[in-house]
Amino acid sequence: MTEILPEKNEQYGTKEYWDQRYSQEPDDSSFDWFKSYADIADIFREIIPDKNARILMLGCGNSRLSEDMYDDGYHEIVNVDYSGILIEKMRQKHEVIRPEMQWHEMDVREMALETESFDVAIDKGTMDAMLTAKADVWDPPEEVIQNCTREVDEVLRLLRPGGVFIYLTFGQPHFRRRYLTREGTTLEIRQLGEAFHYYLYILRK
Ligand SMILES: C[S@@+](CC[C@H](N)C(=O)[O-])C[C@H]1O[C@@H](n2cnc3c(N)ncnc32)[C@H](O)[C@@H]1O
Predict the structure, then answer these.
(1) Which domain of life, per UniProt (predicted)?
(2) Is 33 in contact with 124 (CB distance < 8 Å)?
(3) N or C, where is the chain less crowded by C-beta within 10 Å?
(4) From CA 17, how far away is CA 189, in angstroms rounded?
(5) Is the CB of 76 inside a 6 Å radius of any atom of ligand 1?
């Protein structure tokens, strides 16, 4: 499908952009940022050996990641996105064929979900959308820092002890490590790809 591009990059950081994009797209369209499940399935199966793990998908969009993981045996997936238009379309698309998957209109900075109730949280491109402020990437505005910090605070609240946060991004460690360094956690960083690199940040609680 054709991607509906914003006029300015920083629009990726607004709910209005995403609502408009998802309302204009046909109901059955899908778009996967950076990587598809096929590209990363081996790594995910290694990091998430238990197919019964309870998984939180942060800013699910209309990516096929959740459905492909579901079809690979991970049925306990809770999807959240702050675009209500998107969530409704995704629920209608999947509720009959993938009944165990849940869909919630929710902001990743404040999620009405039970503390320590997830084994895994996954972010593919969502923190990146919040980071597209029009500013110096070396010195992001305070609001952007707070948004990313709030997301990671929420993820750490929702993960059980021993849980893992997997973040897939194009963002290099210099620009992302600051949001992912927390006392009592460990951070592993893997580089993916050969020509253009993506990074997998694996934060363990
Ligand atoms: C770049 S897309 C990534 C979509 C999907 N994860 C993927 O891999 O293709 C970012 C998604 O995050 C959502 N999003 C951005 N900020 C959010 C927030 N604060 N809370 C919830 N969802 C958010 C957007 O609506 C959009 O669906």
Answers:
(1) Eukaryota
(2) yes
(3) N
(4) 31
(5) no
How far apart, in whole angstroms, are the C-alpha atoms of residue 80 and residue 123? 11
The pTM (predicted TM-score) of the whole model is 0.95
Which residue's C-alpha comes closest to atom 4 of ligand 1? 61
Residues in CB range of 18: below 8 A, 6 or more apart: 61, 81, 82, 83, 86, 129
- Ligand 1: distance of its center to the CA of 127 in Å? 8
Backbone angles phi, psi at 92, to 5 degrees: -65, -35
Short-list 118, 59, 67, CA closest to 97: 67
Spell out the domains of the chain, with CATH numbers in brackets.
Answer: 9-204 (3.40.50.150)
17 lines ligand 1 (CB under 6 A): no
